[in-house]
Amino acid sequence: MSGTAVSHTGENGSPEITPFGRKLAGAIAARGPLCAGIDPHPGLLDAWGLPRNVHGMENFALKAADALASEVAVIKPQSAFFEAFGAAGIAVLERVVRHARSAGALVLLDVKRGDIGSTMTAYARAYLGGESALDADAITVSPYLGFDSLDPALHADGKGVFVLARTSNPEASRLQNALLDNGKTIAQSIVDQAAGRNAGAGPLGDVGVVVGATIPPGELDLGELNGPILAPGFGAQGATVADLRALFGRDLTGVLVASSRDLLRHGPGAAELRDEARRIVSTLAG
């Protein structure tokens, strides 16, 4: 499954762009719903016996990408851990993105960007524009400057976004569950606006939402989303397969289950990382 956006030539002779939602649905069907995070966290560098410097981070990130990118549907590098090393760290991130895509994985770059006007346009060019070395298939975005402020990313051809809606961190609840004048929570309003952008798309729209796997079932109505859900919180944060099914439905349609540190702790051996990724996919399919 290639990460490239161009699929074939249309009737007018111009390249036809495959929507992100369609690419993601195909990747999940072929490889399962696991989204493998690559988070060069200092504690993981320690666990792998690597130094807490850019060389240790590079060793870690490229080993993880090499082991996992041919196995899973989506690779999700956490940009902050690379940015912490400045330009040298960004150069490593560029290599991870290239390597993951060349191995057939889609790349979801976890950057959580959200701004207005020309700044958001620049972010969209950096991560979704097709010309940057950081060009990814999708990014995470924050809607808290207004959902419509995300338009430059929402309109990137063949690309996807995952909008923060109801996250798994405990301190998010008070804000995201605050009620609006229409009686809906902020989180539900974000889901509804994403659903509006996905109307009529198939098999999935390009606008996903981030919903933590540890939130209470029934808190959000996701029935009209028609788009993918990124679900962090599985494994180390406590969510089980039963929790995922209670929250998102029995067949987990369109749910991309994120695992980062809980998966990566099985390294540094490539075989052990691949075995754990396969075990998780098998568990999710059971």
TrEMBL record:
Q: What is this protein called?
A: Orotidine 5'-phosphate decarboxylase
Whose protein is this, by species?
Answer: Amycolatopsis pigmentata
**A GO molecular function held by the record:** orotidine-5'-phosphate decarboxylase activity
Please state the span of the N-terminal signal peptide per the UniProt entry.
none
Which controlled-vocabulary keywords does the entry list?
Decarboxylase, Lyase, Pyrimidine biosynthesis
PANTHER family from the entry?
Answer: OROTIDINE 5'-PHOSPHATE DECARBOXYLASE (PTHR43375)
Note whether Lyase occurs among the keywords. yes
| Entries under CDD domains matching the protein | OMP_decarboxylase_like
The taxonomic lineage of its organism, from the top, reads: Bacteria, Bacillati, Actinomycetota, Actinomycetes, Pseudonocardiales
